[in-house]
């Protein structure tokens, strides 16, 4: 039985000796601290969303449409009385939480992805590694516990296959295909900084280390600045795949025996199409509001996707989780696990691995507490009876 909520006692006991937490205890507090302390380009990259950022705001506001209806006198309030463990896509997790795939973590901290891998391994959580990482697949695989590989399917199937093969060899337990990013959305915060890190050679470590990608280059990128510029231009021509369709999952199934999920779906028909094509799971997500401004909030899309898929595949959720109660609501609406993004990224920028660990422990303790105080002994029995709709 897990007792993530013991983090609360740890803090209060430390207070008896005059200790206070070094970092804020809320997602909003981490964001504000990051705004003040991180380099402007790094903060803009993490905080920014598409256009007027209406969808990013809607993702968080959508949770206000639900209220938890706690049940009392069920013997679930004692730490250790609850079981947060879950199995998703064949991966056993200590809690139904994975770190969302976030690229270019070198903007926040050197070896950022490796530090996230170490923190999630310690806590028994899952990590989803972005194709756009600053550390290679192999470096992260050597440090990680249970992790999945997120594939931005490039405009070259053989290169995509190479990424997947490398991930499986490095120990990934699932492949996550992101569907909503054939190209980057319109992101004013990055535009105001005139900052696209990929053009500086950041976030393309998996390309630069790939033998098929390197075979496309006349000169190894390490040899000169001109060679690196040519490698970056080659990357520009390969990133994103506007031709990708559900039928392409058949190719992926030929490349790997790992479970496959498709991330970035909001419409139930799209979810049904990818499950029909062989996906083992879908991840309801709008990329944290970073792609289509004015798109439906991810939480508002979740119930219809769950209903449309039924028990044919797992449904996970991403976009807007900021508190333990948010995670509880998403699970009650049918998600089997949630992917958690920006707050731990701010933690990484503020305090490295300790910052990631802190942000994740805050979410887990909050979730553990909310679960028990709402009357539930495990995550597996959560359903809509826990919720009251207020809209």
From TrEMBL:
Its cofactor is FMN. Coiled coil: none annotated. Residues 19-391 form the FMN hydroxy acid dehydrogenase domain. Keywords: Oxidoreductase. SUPFAM superfamilies: FMN-linked oxidoreductases (SSF51395). Gene3D superfamilies: Aldolase class I. InterPro entries: Aldolase_TIM, Alpha-hydoxy_acid_DH_FMN, FMN-dep_DH, FMN_HAD, FMN_hydac_DH_AS. The keyword Ribonucleoprotein does not apply. PROSITE patterns: FMN_HYDROXY_ACID_DH_1, FMN_HYDROXY_ACID_DH_2. Belongs to the FMN-dependent alpha-hydroxy acid dehydrogenase family. This is Alpha-hydroxy-acid oxidizing protein. It comes from Nocardia jiangsuensis.
